[in-house]
UniProtKB/TrEMBL annotation:
<feature type="compositionally biased region" description="Polar residues">
    <location>
        <begin position="9"/>
        <end position="19"/>
    </location>
</feature>
<feature type="transmembrane region" description="Helical">
    <location>
        <begin position="21"/>
        <end position="42"/>
    </location>
</feature>
<keyword id="KW-0472">Membrane</keyword>
<keyword id="KW-1133">Transmembrane helix</keyword>
<keyword id="KW-0812">Transmembrane</keyword>
<feature type="region of interest" description="Disordered">
    <location>
        <begin position="1"/>
        <end position="20"/>
    </location>
</feature>
<protein>
    <submittedName>
        <fullName>Uncharacterized protein</fullName>
    </submittedName>
</protein>
């Protein structure tokens, strides 16, 4: 009976509109995160080869130190 008295121009309850705003903001945040990931993926620096080679040198030096004799000295 009460639904017949409401006009069609009235908005629904404020609770449902705030839920829509929350859902819309989550969708926008997820879209921006995805867009940032895609931009970061395609704009990676191309000079990573030099960084990798220095990393490999440090890794080899570290692994050379990881011997049983060297570990026993620290115990």
């Amino acid at each position: 009976m009460w639904t017949a008295l409401r006009s069609g121009a009235e908005q629904s309850s404020p609770r449902s509109s705030s839920g829509r705003v929350c859902a819309l903001s989550l969708v926008v945040a997820a879209a921006l995160l995805l867009l940032g990931f895609i931009i970061g993926w395609f704009t990676k620096p191309t000079d990573e080869v030099t960084a990798t080679s220095s990393h490999e040198k440090v890794k080899k030096a570290f692994m050379a130190e990881m011997k049983a004799e060297n570990i026993k000295q620290f115990l």
